[in-house]
């Protein structure tokens, strides 16, 4: 990224993506082999449990203000596994939403950080709340069909003209 002479994007700096060291070709081959083994294990888990899709959070928070994003944990696995995903907006922050006590952050430092990020509905007015739908590798078209069904269920207030989600 440095070779492109472009200004750094703050949110990319926040997750330190630019610091990932380069890998040699033999190292890349080794990493791809390890990833293939993990992909096989996930495929077995998927098939053995007869899964059509997995619905997960897309992030540990609502949509964040510009350049405040700093977590790739909820999407990174699926990118690594080469599984298709789609984010479906299901609601947005409302004026009556309250700040939850940081005492509820029982899962460590990152959890506490997430609780502290939300400062109230004023700073996050209309920020999207969403879910992520994950499909099996190389089954993008099937995921698109599932996403349409999940979207219809979660967003019943929308009309027939509701646009199809982008994949």
Automatic annotation (TrEMBL):
Record's keyword terms, sorted: Hydrolase
UniProt key word Hydrolase: yes
Entry annotated with the keyword Ligase: no
Classification via Gene3D superfamilies: Amidase signature (AS) domain
Domain Amidase positions: 35-143
Pfam family, one: Amidase
GO molecular function: hydrolase activity
InterPro entries: Amidase_dom (IPR023631), AS_sf (IPR036928)
Similarity comment: Belongs to the amidase family.
Name of the protein in question: Amidase domain-containing protein
Lineage of origin: Eukaryota, Fungi, Dikarya, Ascomycota, Pezizomycotina
